[in-house]
Amino acid sequence: MAFTLRRPLALPSALKQISKSTSVAATVRAFHNTASKSAPNAFFSSKTASSAPVQPLSKSRNAFQTAFRRNYMQQPYQAASPSGGNLTQRLLYGAGIFGGTLVAINLVFNRETREDGGMPPYERSYLNETFLHTGLGVGIIGIAARALHQNGWSYRLMATNPWAVLGLSLVASIGTMYGTFATPPENYMVKYAFWGGFNLTQAALLSPLFFLSPALLARAGLYTVAMMGSIAFVGATAKQEKYLYLGGPLLAGVAIVAVSGLAPLVLPATAVRTLALTDKLWLYGGLAVFGGFTLYDTQKVLHHARLAQRGLIKRDAVNESISLELDFLNIFIRMVQILGMRNNNRR
Asked: How many CB atoms lie within 10 A of CB 175?
């Protein structure tokens, strides 16, 4: 059940790439996107103008950029002024922020460390194997999304009916995810096929993000890695099963975040303050919830390692990595939106 709720939360931000019509109750508004008044009314029409071959792609891209002016459109690149600091200073600032965040999280959440003399080898190997598959999965998603974007997939995705995209993406994502879970680790060929299909599905949904500035995506990825790395460190060094109780509260939290993402479907357009509140709840509340899921999933991996050591369950790092991949994608999408909003506010 938790996976079913957590999976759609990565979809809204991918579907934010799709422009909506002028109707107030249009579908993309459900994902907290305020379309520009200049967005074309017939954007999702399957028929395109027959004037020139390149014209439909140009219109799709212009509509995408117009619809994203609120949260995602970035300023054109400008050379940094001498007063802005050099690269070394920025790297030092970033390292200081990461180190300070790690120390603060460790002091707040990890006052009681393990009392069993450190992490046993079987736990360490299982955790390393899980994070290895997580990194491979995220890498596959990034490379495949880039390749699909370069081949024009993003334009075709935005020209498709948004409800069709939502339905097909849910079926493909949940189907391949549960296919991976149901396949035993001994049947590794089928299992990795399902796992690869799951990653390719996420890549197909997130490929329109490459319309954005590469620098913004790189910064969002760096911040996501820093956040997840610091939280995972706390979960790995904390007492055994200290944070496993978070499963229930986090499931309730992710349900609230999901409802806030769908609230504009039933709220009138005049409820500006309520819509703004649900937008903040989806963005920052989701960031906190999936940060908590990272902590929970890390300790769950260690718990499963102990069960596998006793012979109660089978070692399956692929299944464990899917949870962390979903955490990464949801945090990354929100980081992209936050950085895009910051750049817009500087104008």
From this structure: 14
Q: What is the mean pLDDT of the chain?
A: 75
DSSP 8-state assignment for residue 113:
B
Identify whether the C-beta of residue 211 lies closer than 8 Å to the C-beta of residue 154.
yes
Q: Which residue has the tokens 């899917």?
A: 322
The DSSP string of 196-265 is: HHHHHHHHHHHGGGGGS-HHHHHHHHHHHHHHHHHHHHHHHHBPTTSSGGGHHHHHHHHHHHHHHHHGGG
pLDDT band at 107 (very low <50, low <70, confident <90, very high): low
Cα 51 from chain centre: 38
Residues 6+ apart with CB under 8 A from 289: 250, 253, 254, 257
Residues contacting residue 247 through CB under 8 Å, at least 6 positions apart = 2, 296, 300
User: Can you tell me the mean pLDDT for 23-34?
Assistant: 38
103: left (phi over 0), alpha (psi -120 to 50) or beta: alpha
d(CA 45, CA 233): 48
Structure tokens at 165: 């995209």
State the Cα torsion 116-117-122-123 to the nearest 10°. Answer: 70
Compute the distance between CA of residue 225 and CA of residue 219 in angstroms, rounded to an integer: 10
Bridge partner list, 113:
238
Q: Which residues contact 285 (CB under 8 A, 6 or more apart)?
A: 253, 256, 257, 260
* Residue 125: other Cβ atoms inside 10 A: 14
Handedness of CA 242, 244, 248, 252 (dihedral sign): positive
Token pair listed for 23: 């109707």
Distance CA 207, CA 145 (A): 4
